[in-house]
Design goal:
The structure holds three protein chains of three kinds. Chain A is mainly α. Chain A is about 70% helix and about 0% strand. Chain B is globular and about 60 Å long. Classes of the chains: A mainly alpha, B alpha/beta, C mainly alpha.
Chain lengths: ~375, ~350, ~575
């Protein structure tokens, strides 16, 4: 029997849990885990921070803190910057954007007629709504059908509206016109090509394959050269097609080949059972394609189609090489103006920023579409 | 869901111009305006102001042609063309006449099938270097980097010049004048070469024009003039004699200021009378109105006035008349007689 | 007693053409054929009429004429007296230079950015996102112009390197000059004896590869692990270095020096070339980064977890487990990005780089006015590059397709079926089943077949394109049979080479057509001794015929079932 074994310690309750070590929570913990775990990551972090510190502040200085937003010419800009910040300091001359903003948007379109392209732009969304959203009443589809004619009349004139010639179109309006015409017109052609490519009829399949491979193998700029110098040869002698129309035709052909590939991917994602079930129901080829195959394939390829549009919109800058005044082509007349002779960075950065905003927005939208389509399968 | 192709075809049909059966003069008359090809932007010769209105030496002469045909210098539309696209634009019928500092050469006349209608500027190819380079003659340019516009006679002349002088050079091809300027000023090339008038125009736009010097050698003949397509004789005559009218007007002292007075009634000089239309039926021979030359001269004045206003010594371009003075004043501008 | 009667055949009625599915498809195809022919005739007729009106004629006779313009970057001999076809070849080589270097750099940037984007370092992955998203959403034309402007404006001009108060200096010990006209590198000069160094270098690569295989086998047998990488590195650098020292330093460097207006000597990478290649590499790299990321994320997480459970560290997991599986998903879009880069290189003319579009489709088109001919040639060039790369990619895809269990014959008609009577019927197996057979694998000497077709391809390429310069009649002036025969032989030997390297079962069909092309070339009378760089004509002709017949014969009748070439196996062994 033991006596005198005194219990040294009896816990009266549970010890409350201690907080984790200071270095593993909060900001410090996050930094250790994400920025500095391992020597490789630490080195990368330090290098990245150094790069950011070296590059970003001078750019912000130049662009915003020393930017001039109101001036009449480049020399005036330089004087203002020199007066405010001292000799030899460079500041961005955004005044050129301020002055030529409308030119960037509309090219040389008559100023008093700006409401027409703006109306056409707004109506484009109205025309797209019944296509993209099923809640919109179906009779709106009739408006979508006549929208091309409406837009054409609004922009080029005719039928009571004052006519505007093609040479005056330019800027982002031109890029949008070529881009949307290309995509919209190439959709039906692309669908036919995709169906033809997987057809069992040997000749149709060969033609489609030859066309698709030819268009995809050739750079867009050679097709634009064809549009500007060669296409006239293949039309009956004496006919004169407007340059923008010719460019739209070639861009449509170009885009339809890529669209065919996107839709082919969508068709391939369809299980074989769908075709077999359609056959079992007794539907002929066109009925089954129209009612069963195409709706599903198109739904799957919508993100691909939106990506094609983004790519096509970026490719419209190439028309500046054949002399059309898209935003990149507009840079030449602006720089040739004696007021703005020598200006360079501000123009490039503005055009790049504009395209970035548009394309980035479209790509975010396409990702949203993809997520939405995945979940309601 | 799919847009109908039919509507697109309707739109396309609506954009097609009429079938051209007769010559360009009839087409121009039917259209109601002249489609004039100019450059994308050369200071003094063809440029747009902030409102998008075209102005310049070549532009004014083209407006004079429009005035000759329609009596209205505004019955005209301009198509900017690059060195690359200018000939195809003219050959395909996109433009009616090309007024774009284009050199009259054998191959362009014969091989490319164009007709030149005279010379509105006698030029030559020159070189511009920064004075800091310490070069005083084109023969000292061995090994230099030269900015050169592609698709022009300039690059062919350059190749010939350097080969003839046993020198080598490094060409930097550029598309437009603005690009050339940017590269030249940044020092990406040592020398800029183009027509001497173009060099003067470019230099005038620099921040410090005095820091750049035009070398004395003129290595080629560059007679610059307007051109139309082969087989368009009627239309060619209209352009040719409009140009001649402007030159003769300067010979005879007719200016934009006094042309109305001169045209009001027949005067002492029979050639002025024929030019003004108060005597003879010269307008009708071309199918134009009697006083087509008056309208042309009223557009921008006579040749000398147009020259002085846009590229003369009092402008930033600062070109002296030189070869482009009248033959009676030491130059070689010599129009055939109006009779 | 039952009597079977045949079902009555309906007699042919006209509306059976579109109602009866037996006739409908043929009928529709004939209609389509007629429509296409009519459309083609209409287009050609219009073209002929328009050309006649303008007084132009369709001919390639301008190609041998002197071009009269200079090209700054030329990888072969070229002056302004050279012909337009030489100028075109100079342009093509420039395009290929941009394409090859651009693809290499783009892969580098892309893989780096893709892998870094997936790292768990917050700043780095965000930076990479900014790079990828920013670059992908700005048109490539603007990026090329911007980069060219950056190089022109920010780098110093050559005169800044001169004099007492030079504001700029060369780097790396006065050997590399970075100016706004380009970058000047030292150029290696190969003197006598340098050939041995080059041969030693090639030999050392072979030794290193062989050593790698041997070391892997040894590791699998004994479990001992050699530091493979460092030994291979040592071999590749050590062996040539020894030979280099032994031969008395036969390779020296020529340094660029500032003389007169520019630096002279050394390799000159022009500003336009640098701007174009870098801009294309950065642009395409962003797309490749997304492909790499998609590929790595496509490998299921279970693989990583299993690798960790086995005790593999993250680095080895990535290189041994994830990347090989990811490659299968990455490579096809990677190849199409390479194609995009090659096609985007046609934008060179906006910054004055003389590639194919700049020479052939640019200056030559302008100066001669022959739009149709030059554009056709230009499109044919890009088309042939695209089709070749797509062809090779399809071959590669077939080779790395996931090994499947099902066995099926496939492929449709093949020349082999003609020989079924002699050798007994053959069967095509999918790679998975073929792997199970005895003698799986290609006999070593069979790889020499690649040499035969490779040599033919290279020699024909040289003869048709590169060799058609000064002193020889231009390709465009040859007689039509000559042109067609040489083009056919060129294409077929290239296709045979590709299928041979990738061990595709279509090799035999292509080899037979190539034999036909070779015979045609003999009949037409191509100068074989000239093509083969001076070897005797009869030797080339008879030797070539014999070699080809031997290859085809062995392929058809060969004793060793060469299954990986065509996954073919004699019937009876298939079960």
């Amino acid at each position: 029997m033991s006596s005198d074994t005194s219990i040294s310690y009896v816990a009266s309750g549970q010890i409350p849990p201690s907080p984790p070590p200071a270095a593993t929570t909060g900001v410090m913990g996050w930094m250790r885990e994400n920025l500095f775990d391992g020597w490789m990551n630490s080195v990368l972090t330090i290098v990245s921070i150094a790069a950011i510190v070296l590059i970003v502040p001078p750019i912000i200085d130049w662009a915003f803190l020393r930017g001039v937003w109101n001036a009449g010419s480049l020399s005036e800009c330089r004087e203002i910057v020199a007066a405010a910040h001292g000799e030899g300091v460079r500041g961005a001359c955004w005044a050129v954007i301020n002055e030529r903003f409308n030119q960037f948007l509309f090219g040389f379109y008559p100023t008093h007629l700006y409401w027409r392209p703006i109306l056409a732009f707004v109506l484009m969304f109205v025309a797209l709504a019944p296509v993209l959203f099923t809640q919109v009443p179906r009779f709106m589809l009739w408006f979508s059908l006549i929208y091309p004619v409406v837009a054409f009349l609004l922009i080029w004139g005719g039928m009571g509206l004052e006519p505007v010639e093609s040479a005056k179109l330019g800027g982002f309006m031109l890029a949008l016109i070529i881009g949307t015409t290309g995509i919209v017109a190439s959709l039906p052609i692309g669908i036919l090509l995709a169906l033809g490519r997987q057809s069992s009829m040997f000749f149709i399949k060969t033609i489609c394959v030859i066309f698709i491979e030819f268009i995809r193998g050739v750079p867009l700029i050679t097709l634009l050269f064809v549009a500007s110098v060669l296409l006239n040869y293949f039309l009956p002698p004496g006919t004169e097609f407007d340059l923008i129309l010719r460019v739209c035709i070639m861009v449509t052909l170009f885009s339809s080949a890529y669209m065919a590939e996107v839709i082919r991917g969508g068709l391939a994602a369809l299980p074989q059972g769908q075709y077999e079930a359609a056959d079992a129901l007794g539907l002929n080829y066109w009925k089954s394609t129209r009612l069963i195959i195409m709706p599903q394939a198109l739904k799957v390829s919508i993100p691909g189609i939106v990506n094609s549009f983004i790519g096509l919109f970026k490719d419209t800058t190439l028309v500046s090489v054949i002399g059309l005044l898209d935003p990149v082509g507009l840079l030449n007349p602006i720089r040739a103006d004696s007021n703005w002779n020598g200006i360079l960075w501000e123009l490039y950065l503005f055009v790049a920023l504009f395209f970035f905003i548009f394309c980035f927005g479209m790509s975010r939208y396409s990702m949203y579409l993809e997520r939405k389509l995945k979940t309601d399968r | 869901m799919r847009k109908s192709v039919i509507f697109g075809a309707v739109a396309a049909a609506g954009m097609m111009a009429g079938v051209a059966s007769a010559g360009t003069l009839d087409d121009v008359r039917a259209k109601g305006f002249v489609q004039c090809g100019v450059s994308t932007g050369v200071a003094g010769f063809a440029f747009t102001d902030a409102n998008g209105e075209w102005d310049g030496f070549d532009v004014t002469m083209c407006r004079a042609v429009a005035a000759a045909v329609f009596g209205d210098p505004k019955a005209i539309k301009f198509t900017p063309t690059t060195g690359k696209t200018r000939f195809t634009a003219l050959a395909s019928g996109e433009i009616d006449v090309l007024f774009r500092n284009t050199t009259w050469t054998y191959s362009r006349d014969v091989d490319l099938k164009f007709t030149f209608l005279g010379v509105n500027y006698y030029d030559g190819q020159g070189f511009m270097v920064p004075s800091g380079l310490g070069v005083s003659s084109a023969t000292e340019l061995d090994g230099a980097t030269v900015c050169i516009q592609t698709g022009t006679t300039t690059e062919l002349n350059l190749a010939d010049f350097f080969r003839a002088n046993n020198m080598s050079y490094e060409p930097v091809p550029i598309e437009t004048n603005a690009e050339a300027q940017a590269k030249y000023l940044a020092g990406a090339c040592d020398v800029y070469t183009t027509d001497a008038s173009g060099l003067a125009a470019t230099r005038s736009t620099f921040e410090k024009p005095g820091d750049h010097v035009l070398l004395p050698e003129i290595i080629s003949k560059e007679p610059l003039g307007p051109l139309v397509r082969h087989g368009d004789d009627e239309w060619g005559d209209v352009v040719r004699w409009t140009l001649n009218a402007l030159i003769i007007a300067e010979e005879k002292g007719i200016t934009a200021g006094n042309v109305d007075d001169m045209a009001a009634s027949a005067g002492k000089d029979p050639e002025i009378n024929r030019l003004m239309g108060t005597e003879g039926e010269y307008g009708a021979m071309l199918g134009l109105s009697k006083d087509f030359a008056v309208a042309a001269i009223k557009t921008g004045g006579n040749y000398g006035e147009i020259f002085e206003k846009h590229i003369g010594v009092n402008t930033p371009i600062g070109l002296a008349r030189g070869l482009n003075a009248l033959w009676t004043e030491g130059g070689i501008l010599y129009a055939p007689p109006w009779r | 007693m039952t009597v079977t009667t045949e079902t009555p055949q309906a007699s042919f009625r006209i509306d059976m053409l579109w109602n009866d599915s037996r006739y409908r498809s043929t009928f529709l195809q004939i209609i389509a054929l007629i429509l296409v022919l009519l459309a083609g005739l209409w287009l050609v007729d219009n073209a002929v009429q328009n050309l006649a009106i303008l007084g132009k004629e369709f001919s390639f006779s301008f190609m041998p004429q002197p071009s009269s313009y200079d090209i700054n970057q030329r990888l072969i001999e070229y002056t302004s007296r050279s012909s337009h076809s030489t100028a075109a070849v100079v342009g093509l080589l420039n395009t290929l230079l941009v394409a090859v270097v651009g693809c290499f750099l783009a892969t580098l940037f892309g893989v780096l950015a893709g892998v870094l984007r997936l790292s768990n370092n917050w700043i780095v992955s965000r930076l990479m996102t900014v790079y990828i998203e920013g670059i992908r959403n700005i048109p490539v034309l603007i990026q090329i112009l911007l980069l060219s402007a950056v190089i022109n404006e920010t780098l110093p001009q050559p005169s800044a390197f001169r004099g007492e108060n030079a504001t700029a200096s060369m780097v790396l010990g006065d050997s590399i000059a970075v100016t706004n006209r380009g970058i000047y590198f030292p150029m290696p000069i190969f003197e006598d004896g340098s050939l041995y160094v080059v041969l030693a270098f090639i030999a050392s690569i072979c030794v290193a590869v062989w050593f790698g295989r041997w070391a892997t086998r040894r590791q699998q047998d004994t479990g001992e692990h050699l530091p493979e990488f460092w030994i291979q590195l040592g071999i590749i650098f050590g062996l040539p270095l020894l030979v280099f020292l032994a031969m008395g330093l036969p390779i020296s460097l020529e340094y660029p020096e500032l003389k007169g207006f520019n630096f002279r000597g050394g390799i000159y990478a022009r500003e336009s070339y640098v701007a174009l290649t870098l801009a294309l590499a950065i642009y395409t790299g962003a797309f490749i980064a997304e492909n790499v990321r998609a590929g790595i994320m496509a490998v299921s997480k279970g693989q990583t977890e299993a690798a960790f459970a086995l005790g593999l560290r993250p680095g080895r997991t990535m290189s041994l487990i994830i990347l090989p599986q990811a490659l299968r998903v990455i490579i096809p879009p990677l190849i199409s990005q390479y194609l995009n880069l090659t096609k985007n290189s046609s934008l060179a003319l906006v910054i004055g780089y003389m590639d194919a579009t700049g020479t052939l489709g640019g200056i030559t088109l302008n100066q001669t006015g022959k739009e149709m001919e030059t554009l056709l040639l230009l499109m044919a060039f890009y088309l042939s590059i695209s089709l070749s790369i797509s062809f090779v990619m399809n071959l590669y895809n077939e080779q790395v397709k996931l090994v499947e269990r099902t066995s099926v014959t496939g492929g449709g008609f093949s020349v082999l079926q003609l020989f079924d009577g002699m050798s007994g019927p053959w069967e095509l197996l999918k790679k998975g089943d073929a792997r199970m057979k005895r003698n799986f694998g290609v006999a070593g000497p069979l790889n020499l077949v690649a040499l035969l077709y490779g040599a033919t391809f290279v020699l024909m390429l040289n003869y048709v394109f590169i060799g058609q310069m000064e002193g020889r009649e231009s390709y465009y002036l040859w007689s039509t049979p000559d042109q067609l025969a040489s083009l056919l032989l060129l294409i077929m030997s290239g296709a045979s080479l590709a299928t041979c390297i990738f061990k595709h079962y279509r090799f035999i069909d292509l080899a037979v057509v190539e034999l036909v092309a070779f015979v045609l070339a003999i009949l037409v009378g191509l100068p074989f001794s000239g093509i083969a760089l001076g070897l005797s004509g009869t030797l080339v002709v008879f030797g070539g015929l014999a070699a080809r017949l031997a290859v085809i014969g062995y392929t058809v009748f060969g004793a060793r079932p060469n299954v990986t070439y065509f996954y073919r196996v004699r019937e009876g062994e298939a079960s």
